Amino acid sequence: MQANEKNSNPKILGNRYEILESLGSGGMATVYRCRDLNLQREVALKVLRDTYVEDPSFQGNFLQEARAAANLSHPNIVTVFDFGHDHNRLYIVMEYVSGTDLKTLMRRQTTISIPRAVAIMVNIAKGVGYAHRAGLVHCDLKPQNILITPDGGAKITDFGISRALASISPDEKVEVVWGSPQYFAPEQAGGGPPSPSSDVYSLGVILYEMLTGELPFQAEDAQTLAELHLHADPIPPQTLNASIPDDLNNIILKILAKEPSARYRTADQFARILQAFAERPSRMDSQSGTVALLEPVSESKTMAYEPRQLPEVDWKAVGLGLLAFIALGGLIPLWLWVCLLYPSCPLNPG
Hints:
This protein is α+β, with helices and mostly antiparallel strands. It has 2 domains: 12-95, Phosphorylase Kinase, domain 1 (2-Layer Sandwich), CATH 3.30.200; 100-287, Transferase(Phosphotransferase) domain 1 (Transferase(Phosphotransferase), domain 1), CATH 1.10.510. Helices cover 37% and strands 17% of the residues. It has a 6-stranded antiparallel beta sheet with strand order 1-2-3-4-6-5. The longest helix is centred in the last third of the chain and has 26 residues, at 315-340.
């Protein structure tokens, strides 16, 4: 068994994790589907590439990802189980999610239906909101880092460049910007500090792409993309997909505002806004395929109704009842007068 990736892939890491297949690779690491021989379950192993093993900064980022995600427990965040090394190979052991990533799903379908796109984004926003409440900004949200489960759920992964809110200075400025230029926020593009609203901007770009099949800004190089995020206005998504309702179009444009304070401040707030949109009564226009939101019926609107039929009155029964009442009412004074004639009557005084 060879431990070096240049010769052959290892079959077992840490005397515990048996590699079954490669799931994909990125610039820093390769991800494998593995079997945990101790617990007899499938897991995902993210293994740092050999070229970065000796680099302290990459090791630090790798360990930071493991620690950051390990402290997050949420149904919309991939769970981290373990961190280890084997023959100078660093790896993170994570929950295995069968299915595909959101980017692959979008390539297959071009655009995603409004109800499904909103449902996926609500799940993502809830997970990101939980991370915000735990004091973390993800900083690298993109469809490749969103896993779609077979039941349509979504899980966030790759907290490799996440930042602790407590460590972020409002005045900080960086020369090298980490993240994905297609999805990062204007303040990140300008080298400024990220915030929860920076993650919200990235979620807006993802939702825009799901609904239109296009990115709000496209360019051949990262510098031009950064300038577009900083200064250009996006094409309204409704222009590219006429089935997008006005209110959803406005929600997306608000999220893509240049100024962080003009967006929804946290992913939790964004999730609530989308949830409210999704729960409004809607119908599908069979001809155009557009979603039309139904107006709730107000109390002032006139509604048609059938008048209730009143039952017929039995006047004979009413007359007999009245006579009986009068007869009984007349007997009471007579009874009182007869009683008073007798000394033993309880109504007599003294």
